[in-house]
Amino acid sequence: MIVQDAFMTETAQFADVVLPTALWGEKTGCFTNPDRTVHLSYRAVDPPGEARSDLDILLDYARRMDFQDKDGAPLVKWTDPEGAFDGWRACSRGRPSDYSGLSYAKLSQGSGIQWPCTERDPDGRERLYENGVFTTGAEDCELYGHDLTTGAEITPALYRAHDPRGRAVIKPADWIPPSEEPDSAYPFWLTTGRVVYHWHTRTKTGRVPALQAAAPEPWVQLTAEDAARLEIREGEAVLVGTRRGHVRVAAQIGEGLLGHLFMPFHYGSWDDPTRHGAANELTLTGWDSVSKQPHFKFAAAWIRRA
User: Fold this and answer.
1) Which end of the chain is more exposed for a tag (fewer CB within 10 A), N or C?
2) Domain span including residue 197
């Protein structure tokens, strides 16, 4: 297993090979916001040490593997970020996410341009589907979706039999109870989430002194009523357990729903091997049948004073 990362994380430690890669400010490339706005980000500083951009790593890998197209020419024909972007422009031409009217020169002149950007819409298009016609026709689709309950793929024949022909598709699904709910042994709902000071596993924010000082350690929040009933005081060490194991964190008393616990998921052990407060050690190991998103957000739990 090969991992590309800028830092040695808990995940990277499982890899056979770790390739040090550049961060966003250390490489040139484009990124697209959720509102379809394309931005060009130029390299501000060189990456440290042996770190290289993910593009340079990919190009080196393709060259060493001697990847070829059907004519025996190199499969990857571009050598720099702009060439790769031009390859994507050609690939996207005529498709819903058409980038063919964009270029590095054009993106360098403004603060971002929305796709589709074409000869017809040289400055991009702010809104899609203004005419009420969607790209749902059977002849427009390359994938046809899944059954939201089973995850089974919808076949082209089945989709064509109910061809929306440009109408929007709204998929209903029956409610399914969660795979785990509180009971007498695990009487609390545990949910996980973010705090404003950190991002994901803190591989970057945990190295910023002001952010780390603002939220240095994991904690669990419970209501004042639940804390009084369990004789738990603010800042006291508690154990939080689920069917997967338990962690030791500080208690924080605050607002919320009775019978609910909240833990931030940012904290692992990369910066402190003695820390035992990773929220994801407690959450479910299953995943959604369609999106494949893991059930990292909830579990049935107990809490008690350490």
Assistant:
1) N
2) 188-305
Last residue of a domain, one of 106, 133, 168: 106
Query: Does the pTM exceed 0.85?
Result: no
Identify whether 272 is part of a domain. Answer: yes
**pLDDT tens digits, one per residue of 206-260:** 999 999 999 999 999 999 999 999 999 999 999 999 999 999 999 999 988 999 9
Residue 53 lies in a domain: yes
Sheet containing strand 37-41, strands side by side: 29-32, 37-41, 113-114
Cα gap 219→303, rounded to integer Å:
12
d(CA 33, CA 49) in angstroms, rounded, equals 30
* Cα–Cα dist 48/260, whole Å: 44
Specify the CATH number for the domain of residue 235: 2.40.40.20
